[in-house]
Batch of 2 targets.
Target 1
Amino acid sequence: MTPHKEDYLKALYELGGSEHLVSNKQIADLLKIAPASVSEMLGKMSREGLIQYEPYKGSRLTQSGLQLAISLVRGHQLWEVFLIRHLGYSWSESHEDAEMLEHITPPRLAARLDRFLNYPAYCPHGNVIPKADGQVENAALEPLKDLSVGEKSKIRRVDEERELLDYLESLGIEIGSPVAVLAIAPYEGPLTLDLDGRNVQISYKAACQIYVDQIHDPDTNNTIF
Amino acid sequence: MTPHKEDYLKALYELGGSEHLVSNKQIADLLKIAPASVSEMLGKMSREGLIQYEPYKGSRLTQSGLQLAISLVRGHQLWEVFLIRHLGYSWSESHEDAEMLEHITPPRLAARLDRFLNYPAYCPHGNVIPKADGQVENAALEPLKDLSVGEKSKIRRVDEERELLDYLESLGIEIGSPVAVLAIAPYEGPLTLDLDGRNVQISYKAACQIYVDQIHDPDTNNTIF
DNA sequence: TTTAAAAATTAGGTATACCTAAAATAGGAG
DNA sequence: CTCCTATTTTAGGTATACCTAATTTTTAAA
Ligand SMILES: [Mn+2]
Ligand SMILES: [Mn+2]
Ligand SMILES: [Mn+2]
Ligand SMILES: [Mn+2]
């Protein structure tokens, strides 16, 4: 295993490669690597049994590839918790450094870090932290933008992009905060939120990357409760 | 910078490359790399201004190479302190994992880890931890084997080799313990120690790799005090 | 001062992982 | 069903960092 292959595994995992085929282009875009290089690497990883590769169709993780991908994600998130809780990192800083630390986190280190952190269930950005055995359970969430005016929910997760994270942190947005939409300006205009009693305005784009407890049926768009 | 070059810098530093020329062979032996590869890499690092390389003579660190080497050592030792104090690592385990972590420890991370650990002065094996500005101050030590029967000193540092570390830890030897030599068996036989009141036998080889406060003048071999 | 061993360099080659450019394929629009 | 375009693959090439084998240089012994 090399950090490069690990990045491919993680990319595949994040793009849904544990459930369905993922196109080379998606991987190339995410990792910012030329499509030709992606083909080459995927071919090699296929021969190594990490992925199942169907030329011209796409690739998905094998059982062993999935295990590796999950343990990388686990290491990443545990480090984020450490960096934020104990070293005073910001949301975006923790993601940056965890991106490197994940590659040198053997199971022994992950296990001891996990214990030190008291077995956290979520990373600071709200993602579920896989257990040592690879177990992952995702709650049903929906983007904040899909909340209607007046509906109440709770902030559960945010996308991990530097600019977004810095923006959200400057607004004081936190995982777990109760939130309600007070107003939605038209034409992808800003949303006015009641954030745990505080009045906050956020961009539409940000509202697409903040996730709250699902209160709408994803098919019919009817309120679930 | 790559982890490989970083390993060369650290090797050069550990072999005294901040003070005098170091031969290619020493580096090759330490890093377990073929001498031909070492020549090649040193040539490149010389062109990059990291070392001063005199073909057929040896190499030494430049100012910038020394700074890098020191910050690697600093990262390494800070991680060791963390792994032992907070994650319950053993002496040998901490060295192993720190060997990898040191390569992904940007100054920001080192600074915050340093603060979290409350600015430790020594690594768990007794080495001085360089300060952020590169300052290093070494105390005068001598090998435990050079102590005469009856002389009292304190254990200050041990060499970092897996087998030695596991051996010493199993004997309950700790940095800072008062120690006196009760008997020295002839022909490189074992030493019997009074270790903080306890009676302990250690091999001659181990006594060469344990360092105590210097009480002999290194030139005349007379007792200093 | 010669000579032999040790150390270092050079030459030639491997594997990894990336690139660009060219050719092949697939899938949707008409 | 035929094109066209987006995607993918193949071909050829780069850089890094390692190797072994052959040659050169240094050093130290005779
Ligand atoms: Mn992250
Ligand atoms: Mn996270
Ligand atoms: Mn160490
Ligand atoms: Mn140490």
Target 2
Amino acid sequence: MSINIYDIAKKAGVSAATVSRVINNKPHVREETKRNILNIISSMNYTPNALARNLSTGNTLNIGFLIPDIENPFFSQLLRGLTNASERYGYNIFLYGTDDSIEKEHRFFRSVKAERLSGIIVIPIDANNAESCKRLLEFEKAGVPVVLIDRGLKNCRLNGVFSEDFNGSYAAVDCLLQEGHRRIATIKGPENSRPGNERWLGYLAALEKWNIKPEERYIRQGNFHEELAYELMHSLMEQSEPPTAIFSSNNMTSLGCLHYITEKGLILGGDISMIGFDDMDILKCMNIKLSVVDRDVYSMGWNAIELLTKRLAELSNKDKNEISCRQEIFVPTKLILRGSEKWRG
Amino acid sequence: MSINIYDIAKKAGVSAATVSRVINNKPHVREETKRNILNIISSMNYTPNALARNLSTGNTLNIGFLIPDIENPFFSQLLRGLTNASERYGYNIFLYGTDDSIEKEHRFFRSVKAERLSGIIVIPIDANNAESCKRLLEFEKAGVPVVLIDRGLKNCRLNGVFSEDFNGSYAAVDCLLQEGHRRIATIKGPENSRPGNERWLGYLAALEKWNIKPEERYIRQGNFHEELAYELMHSLMEQSEPPTAIFSSNNMTSLGCLHYITEKGLILGGDISMIGFDDMDILKCMNIKLSVVDRDVYSMGWNAIELLTKRLAELSNKDKNEISCRQEIFVPTKLILRGSEKWRG
DNA sequence: TTGTAGGCGTTATCAG
DNA sequence: CTGATAACGCCTACAA
């Protein structure tokens, strides 16, 4: 096959053990021996076999990432944070696209085990899926740390990086109320998603603060996708007393709303007001002054890797047998006002 | 550590070899023995260690994917095609985000070798980079097939999946000419990119067909990113005799153009005409009738995996020692007219 | 049909 | 500071 550690050893007139020490920057090697070996390594263009090393150490630097919808720009941004951070920390990323299919999600769990990944970062598809929850807890117990991002799992206490969905949503709806709106509609996220639920609770809480009863006619069950949101906008707007403002629960939903709004030629912040969750670069290009609840998505990805790194470090210091703290990180949200929240502006 | 093939063997009262045969679906195992082993495997929740297997067979089912700009929706779509196809064929994807940094690209090549990936799919950053070319050819020679996507490398004959950039661009510009435009500007892609160059040649060829001389004042050097395109639009439009139509060489560039156009309140297909390369879902939502050169990006990703699969199969049939054909697949483009090409519409 | 034994390329533990 | 040698978990001739 390809050139191995013995070839180097032979050439250098030493044993494989010494070469191994050099490769791994271990102490107790004479400076000269080291230099010589290093030279031979580079001149023979030798690259240690990671498979063999991992097998021997029982520890890969590979981490798995399960992502439900690769084309959603939110996830792309996350992915960039993740890949950058994992490069920084020396991990390889195994990418698994689950495409919103729970079967795929489960299939990938098997892969994770087979490949002996040292950690996984998961955006679970269904917060209520007991099987996923079980499998993930098994990983944790087996010493494979799990970090959730954005979405969570019900009754499944794991590490995770989330955002302040409740606060963000509350602030957005509160803002609309301050603007004078009283008929505020929302298109909810999927019921089995933590962010969807939190944002819904934020909506309710803001209404309650202002002593306003939530009304069925202004509430729609969305699925975080554009098509449905677009349809729901029709049913929201084409009723006798339509809402004066919309709170949309994610970026795709906002697109659906905007689709309807631009199609009807409505003026944002004039004919209809709106605040969406999650910013999109595209809005700027299109000169669309949509107010949004923003958060640092890139850093969510980065934080997830750091959290994982920390957990992995704790696991390798098993000698102290510390009980490590579970951590949930909540990235703050920020309300960015661009005018679409205005009433009859 | 975790449970291994010997544990299963002991429990089943057979040797590890027999268990191995069962795991790999090899013949010459009594049906009953097989059933029994399978039962034990599932009851003990055993998953074979892929690292050990790969080390032993010298063949991983892992393939690397180098992508320059994860947040570009074109690449997201590609990524979806790739992940779906690789799941279908049983590969794992190692994702490497190069972020347009040639150093990262080279660093990842090292990783590819260390991890003994069985193939790589690359979107090279710089078509003129000799080092990348050299490394990729080395991989090919070492039996690690390489498939390029979209972008290529100069003087580096490798397998690849591209699209009919020249034809697409030619058709777009020809269409603008048919509409009566004579002052057609273009914002070019990077000079070191194959698609950028092909699309530029298509532009020139179309002009030539109509006997029109390309004019410096209507040509700008872009970089496939939005910001620069936006700036270049200023310099294009704010001259004494501005162009009447724009041909934009990729999706991000189109965004930059649209940014300018919407900001100035220009009417697409009225005040200014335009055709872009690559469609974007977003356009529909924003009700923007941009005509585009479209291609099936998802299938480009899928095709890349299929090409790789074929090459891998050929390599394993080394006994025949066939010289396998290098393949370049060119996905067709399609001009989608939505009105923005019209003149004084 | 099944078992034995050696090898894949490293690392790690002891000795020296 | 360096070298044998035994793992790591699986596959695969070859033998039985």
